Amino acid sequence: MQRAQLVEEIKVLLDLVERNTTTLADSVMEIDVSEYTDAALFEREKIELFRDYPQFVGPSCIVPAAGDYFAFDDTGIPILIVRRDDGGLNAFVNICSHRGAPLNESTHGQARKGRMFSCPYHGWSYDLEGQLIGVPFGKEGFEGIDRSALGLRKLDVQEKYGMIFVMPNPARTFDIDEVLGGLQERLEGFGFDSHYYLGAKKVFTDFSWKLNMDTFHEYYHFEFLHPESIAQMAYSNIANYRQYGRNHSMGSPALSINELRGLPEDQWQPREHSSYVNYIFPNTVIFVVADHFQTWRVYPITPQRSVVYHSMFLPHEPHDENERQEYEAYFQMINDVAVAEDYSLVDKVHRGLQSGIDRKVLIGRNEPGVQNMHRQLHEVLGL
User: Fold this and answer.
1) Which of 173, 207, 226 is the last residue of a domain?
2) Would you tell me which of 163, 276, 340, 349 could form a disulfide with 288, CB atoms 3.0–4.6 Å apart?
3) Residues 47, 60: one domain?
């Protein structure tokens, strides 16, 4: 958001704080426990939501320079994204044409010599356009192969508004504006193309990916689950909710927001007194706070297991080792709070859902973000 939008958002949040209320959905929502436990539904989700639906990869700054790459295989299709010399992006199925090994040995880095990938198994090499350019012992071992037909399989990758999306299924394409549904208006101005990628933390959780995602979409639990952490910084059960296609954004007031009352608007620093959870369907949250932003990407593994990638992006590279250690400590603290407080509690919720008791899960009017996520899942999956 630009400053004028941030100021207007602060006014809305100040009003919600004064009235001690939050944005409300039209009614209470009920969903069946089986939506978290049904194995057949889970298999559909893996295909329809993660293989055949565009996936948010990250902000543009995750691959800032020519030859920089980012790779992941959590959709079921190994994906490799690389920045070309002309500044654009290519995306490939990350499978060597020889024996199928991935071409990178890390999830994030620089192509060899900034211009090629060499398979760590037998050294077959590809340029940044995916063309096969090197086959060790090729004349004797692979006489007669058509190298022009053995390049990497391309995927549809699109970059706009400082965000990167990819379609895992090589037979499908997408429209990035349709996927965002206008959410880019909410995210504009946060510097997604210019921040510094501090890194990512990978956390495995022993419960459904949807239970994992549910935790991000409401502030109702702050007072009860985070009394000594988040509740010391932000209001519980107060948020402004806005819908953008399948996505949504929620503004949250910090406890300090009342300091702005009576202060001239031109002196306001909105990001110091608010934070923003931005949901990109089906599995991503972008969390914008005062001086940086974080992304949380959740992927299914089994009906009862998921993985979370928590990444942090700073307005600039740390100036020295001390500053880097300070950011790293803060990053670890946020991750530890999620693991110790959110995930440990959700693990208990998971056990209750697995008990076989026939019941409904209730999602309140004060949880419009949770309602929207499930409503969109219902629509895509035809539930």
Assistant:
1) 173
2) 276
3) no
